[in-house]
Amino acid sequence: MENDIDIPPPSYKIVLLGDSSVGKTCLVHRFITNKFDQNTANTIGAAFITKKYTSANKPDRQLKFEIWDTAGQERYRSLTPMYYRNAKVALVCFDMNNFETTFKTAKFWIEQIELNGATDASDPIEIRLVGNKMDLFDKPQPEDLTEEQQNRAKDQKQETNNTITFHRTSAKDGSGVTEVFDSIIDNLDDDFFKFYFDKKRAELEAGRDGDQLSNILGSRLQNTATSRCC
Amino acid sequence: MSELSPSPSRNGETSNHIKYNVSFSSTSKLAVPSIANPTLPTGEPTTAINLENAGPSESSFILEEDDHHLQVVSTSRHSVASDSSYPGSGGQDSEYEEEDGNNVNSSHIEEEALQNMLSDLIRSNRSYVNVRDNSLPLRELSFLDLNIFPNTHEAKNELEFYEKHIQIQKDNDEPAFHQKLKHFFILSTAGKPIFSMHGSDDLIMGYMGIITTIVCTFEESMKEDFKSIMVGDKTKIVVLNKSPLLLVAISQISYELMSSNTDSTSSNKEDKESDSDDILLINQLNTLYKYLLAILSKPTIEKNFHNRMNYDLRKVLTPLDFQNLEALCMKLTYGLPLLNQGESISDTESFDFFIGELMDSSIQSVKVTNTTRMKLNNILLSCKRLKLRDDDSALNRSSETASLIFNRTTKEAEKYLGDDLLFSFLLASSNKILNYMKPKNHSLSNEDMKLLFSMISAAEYQNRGGSFDEDLWIPLCLPNFNPNGFLYVFVKKISLSSYLQSSTVDQYLTIVLVSSNKNTFFQMRELSRFIINKIVKREQFLTTLTDELTGSTKLSILNDIKVPAIKHFIYKLKETNQFIMNDMVHFNNDRSMNTLLQLVYFYSILHNSRATRIKSKLKSTYNQQQGSNFVNPINTYKIDNKKLTYVKWQGAGSIVTGFMLSDNSFEFYCLSNEEIDSKELISSSLKIIRWCEKYRKRLFLGGGVVF
Ligand SMILES: Nc1nc2c(ncn2[C@@H]2O[C@H](COP(=O)(O)OP(=O)(O)O)[C@@H](O)[C@H]2O)c(=O)[nH]1
Ligand SMILES: [Mg+2]
């Protein structure tokens, strides 16, 4: 499919959920900057991060990821619906080395999404379970254990209508991180892009450029300028 | 004065200390002239000579005891008319005599009067002051030389001292725990530990017993807000009662205990007086308490404890909260940031915070031209006028994520994008305030602002370079504004240079939009994009702004107005409680921990000994002059209510002079680490003060713009 240079890539909203300290912020930073900072500060409230990203496997596909990195704490929970409202993907993260506790919280978040997302069955949030800190995972038979985790994740899948994919990552050494985002793009329907670009092109032909913020703000300002003189 | 007097035991430590700082020995001879407290030993290595210490005998000051502070009332000899000669001025002071008293300009009058007072003061103390051994070259001062802290464990160098006595240590090492100079604890009234600056949980559990015992001994009086006790004469414990929380500070730091020698002479000391003695530590505890309020809000804390007195508040605190509390402890006490092993100080945020706190919750302002500030103000103001038009389909479509919210809001007939915007700020490097916009009927206290900025710099930590596009959304309770509810803070840090073709220095601007509605993130984001667009749209304005911010952080005033001997200064405008200061790098040419701790110490002493009031006959002289037209705003000073403090630290090879001058409108503090005579000190200080007055509009943003 052809991508018009004039047309910005479609936005795609992702929310990261999960217990605090499982590595959500580090995962996002690894994805954005390809760096790992041991001393990353914990998240207060939430951070909204955007990045244009082209799939490593399908170079003709680009998305503008709009990522909500949330603080998992209870006291911020009243805000979370706002974060996953409109989200296409939820990366529900847990710590592979602290499985029981953090997986329980992960399940909690999946339930929450179900409760809230059930209203819009036509466009459910795609859930991806992310087991992070793989680099620390030095159990005797790692394959067995991750398999067990994977099975638990699959169990979870049966209980839900949303699709659940399982990922293993390490924000520290970087393994598996871009793969998560590549897979998000790769899994999209061709129709998704086709629909988007058709719509944009139609808009352009109609002489509207929906993404030119300056145009909008310009016209807004003219408004204010006229209202100011009195 | 009593607050500057050393305790005998501390003297003992001084001698220990000298072992490691041989060149330091002559310093300890410096004496506190003890007028009010003649029993005090004279051996404090640091000497504060402020007007309180002026001996009455041959001096032309009359000392009166008032409120336990000595007031200095100058006699007519200090009036301008007769200032040409000084009784007792010797040849070596001839520099003070060259003026002839024929002053037509009131700033000259003032300058001379102040000079006279100061030189008298110094002269009257001459017998106490050890003359520096001039054969020794000036050498670099170490904070260890200053005996800021009891160096009982004989640290060999600054780093070792820091690691032993200052650095936060959270392990089980009990002896190490006891070597720390400062402790903070937060516990529930039921005695459950919530936070401790040092020590592991296990270790604290044991220690809590002692704390609760102390608390229990006050049980009767715990209806009071706080309680303070001295353990021996070098440890102070202050407990702040914010039921259901108790906050405890334990300090062994000399500049925090300055006014704590409450025994002996001042037996008639009233409670009120000891209140002010403890104010420093109480303020620190209040700051920690306000942090808890900010993240939890008052009802949350109370509700949790109401259900169960035994409630463990730690359950709702995050690792970040503990880290922030630790950072606060370090900033409040030492002006130091939390440093990882081997890390050096990378910015001055923690020092700025300390100074702001010391200056009674003062907010640091950024110098820009009035035109620039007005332009930025107007940008903020226009945020409030941005209409959310019904036919705003372009915007609706522009961002899929925003569309839903915008559709919703238009349905609710919301007309303006910034309807829920309460306060907005533009900050330079996340803690210095450039612009402030507020509604007519509300404003934020300086305390709330400091809390907010402190939170923002903690949150921005992870994106320090502003290297990626990130917007923060932080729910926060601003306790002075409303202890019961949350506000929602949108934070966006932008790098100005990323919008410029050619730029050498990078300057960051932080946009802070405080909303009353938790669902308005995308509106605030839209507003921030509008603000950014307005700022970066015109390259000329952007360049000007970047240059001005760069100049402001350098604050090269000390070169501009030729006061080479003054290395560091703080000017605080009392009306709005805002201050400016130059970069600490100017003091010692570095931003090391050593320099930072020295500044913390010097300014603490200068600030905490601000007890002297000058009542001068100059006032009448000055009034007579009123007839002539004074153009310079400096002339509008009221001479009475001026206060002046002069401190000199002198040791073999190094000398530091501190000077404080204040009146109803400002406080001025400065430090020199060169030989500087009183005349130069006064005239340089007045030069800076006049400069600050002249550029007041550039230096300070006033009360903010109102929408
Ligand atoms: N070894 C290892 N540590 C990690 C990894 N990801 C994060 N961490 C550490 O886990 C802690 C919490 O990470 P953070 O991203 O703040 O977690 P969040 O609360 O989920 O955002 C930090 O100390 C990180 O250094 C990882 O992949 N491997
Ligand atoms: Mg995080």
Automatic annotation (TrEMBL), chain A:
Q: Sorted alphabetically, which Pfam families does this protein's record hold?
A: Ras (PF00071)
One example of the protein's molecular function in GO is: GTPase activity
Origin: domain of life: Eukaryota
Name of the featured protein:
GTP-binding protein of the rab family
Annotated InterPro entries: P-loop_NTPase (IPR027417), Small_GTP-bd (IPR005225), Small_GTPase (IPR001806)
Tell me the keywords, alphabetical order: Nucleotide-binding
The record lists the organism as Scheffersomyces stipitis (strain ATCC 58785 / CBS 6054 / NBRC 10063 / NRRL Y-11545) (Yeast)
Which SUPFAM superfamilies does the entry mention?
Answer: P-loop containing nucleoside triphosphate hydrolases
UniProtKB/TrEMBL annotation, chain B:
Domain FUZ/MON1/HPS1 first Longin per the UniProt entry, residue ranges: 182-253
| Location of the FUZ/MON1/HPS1 second Longin domain | 420-532
- The main location class comes to membrane
- Localized where? Endosome, Multivesicular body membrane; Prevacuolar compartment membrane; Vacuole membrane
Q: Which InterPro entries match?
A: FUZ/MON1/HPS1_longin_1, FUZ/MON1/HPS1_longin_2, FUZ/MON1/HPS1_longin_3, Mon1
Q: Where is this region: Disordered?
A: 33-106
Looking at the UniProt record for this protein, which Gene Ontology cellular component terms does it annotate, in alphabetical order? fungal-type vacuole membrane; Mon1-Ccz1 complex; multivesicular body membrane
Keyword Nucleotide-binding part of the UniProt annotation: no
Which named protein is this?
Answer: Vacuolar fusion protein MON1
The record lists the organism as: Scheffersomyces stipitis (strain ATCC 58785 / CBS 6054 / NBRC 10063 / NRRL Y-11545)
